[in-house]
Amino acid sequence: MAGTGDYDALDYAVSLEYRSASKDMAGTTTLKARATQPLSRFALDFGGGTVDKVTVDGQQARFETREEKLYVSPHRLARGAEFTVTVDYRVTRDNGPEGHGPWREIEDGFAISPQTHQTMHHVFPCKNDIADKATFTITVTAPARLTGVANGDLVETTPLAGDRAARKYRMVHPMPAADGQIAVGPYSRLTHEGPDGVTMRDVVPTAQVGQLRETLARTDDQLRWQTARLGPYPFGTYGIFAPLGAVGPYESQTMSTIDAATLASGPADYVRAHELNHQWFGASVTPKTLADDWLAEGHAHFYGAWYEADLAHPGSAEAFADSMRMFYGMDQNLRDTEGPPAAPKPISGQIQRAGGALALYALRQTVGPQLFEKVERAVVGRFKDGVLSTADYLKTAREVSGRDVTALLTDWLYAKKTPPMPGHPDWKSDAAPA
């Protein structure tokens, strides 16, 4: 077999070496995996560079690259066998003629800004499947005057010859390969102990540390607000990476990427609450397929809007309802152009965010705030470090609430027409103009 579904990824060790004034980087990726069927050939996703050498369990293996796939022919692997594949490669930070790649360049450094779930294989060879999560070690080597950045915990900094340094980051909770962040630049790390012992770690431009400290301090309260509704934060570290240049916003495990200009211009409370919520829904509990992505985007939009309303009018149910009513007014237009939240058309934008948030609000309106919170906490507890499908969410909501909410949620997630909002019969949603 030659697909990427013939094995389970278990652990990655990714190393990249940045050199100033060059867009080429030497890299090594070591993947530990388990064969799910007998294998004489398997594939990794890789479309960003040139492969120099491949070994499987220490033995050199034949390989070929074709159409953003790296096909490897090792010794035959039995079903259930664990194996290790190491790829030495060179990657070029080139986004192609249409600019669809993940690279964002600065004067001396770069950051990653994925456009879709399909771009991280331009950074390193991987199994680019959002449902196949693995633990990660990422090592970034760069000039010592710069800081190599990755999500996870910084576990080691090694000075190297030529005034260079290697920084190693470790993620002990599994994540999809697509959800990483890797960057290099003139950055400083700011750390302190946050709520419930979480290590708060921000990475910001060194020249803007003083300017950004006050707004970064808001994260502690945002974390407290979300844990009060969802339960314990799922990881040991959290913070904001504020890169130079136009990057993000987007989330990766333990880290939200929000560019320095956005942070410097204001508090960005909705954006920050949205990205923080993705640590629960997206990073810890990962949508099983792209059609299930409303579970990540809908939750982040729901809690981001709720936090923003609560910040302006603490404890006001009316302020949150006003926000949901605005989304409701747009919903039919979005369904007409993008499809329903759990079955979007191939090119989708807002429906999984706004429509997904409305589905959650309809559930809360139906079962009440207390049962809704029980459902949410049950979901993040049962599926921690795993993947979640729409069917899984519907089943959990039904079991925990004790109410048959399947028809309600099915309408909100799959219907072509916007359903009536429970408790708000006066709300109207406009269709797209003919």
As a whole number of angstroms, the C-alpha radius of gyration is 22 Å
What is the CATH superfamily label of the largest domain? tricorn interacting facor f3 domain
- How many strand segments? 22
Kindly report how far apart the N and C termini lie. Answer: 49 Å
Report the mean per-residue pLDDT as an integer: 93
Low-confidence parts lasting 5 or more residues at pLDDT below 50? none
Biggest sheet details: 8 strands, mixed
- Annotated CATH topology of the largest domain: Immunoglobulin-like
The overall number of domains is 3
Number of helical stretches of at least 4 residues: 10
CATH architecture of the largest domain: Sandwich
Question: If strands are numbered along the chain, what order do they take across the biggest sheet?
Answer: 5-4-8-2-1-11-14-13
The CATH class assignment of the largest domain is Mainly Beta
What is the 3D shape?
Answer: globular
Describe this structure in words.
Its EC number is 3.4.11.2. It is a single chain. This protein has 434 residues and is α+β, with helices and mostly antiparallel strands. It folds into three domains: 184 residues, Immunoglobulin-like (Sandwich); 83 residues, Zincin-like (2-Layer Sandwich); 129 residues, Orthogonal Bundle (Neutral Protease, domain 2). It contains ten helices and 22 strands. The protein has an eight-stranded mixed beta sheet with strand order 5-4-8-2-1-11-14-13, with no helix packed on it. It has a five-stranded mixed beta sheet with strand order 16-17-18-20-19, with helices on one face. Helix 2 packs across helix 4. The radius of gyration is 22 Å and the shape is globular. The N and C termini lie far apart (49 Å). The model has no long low-confidence stretch (mean pLDDT 93).
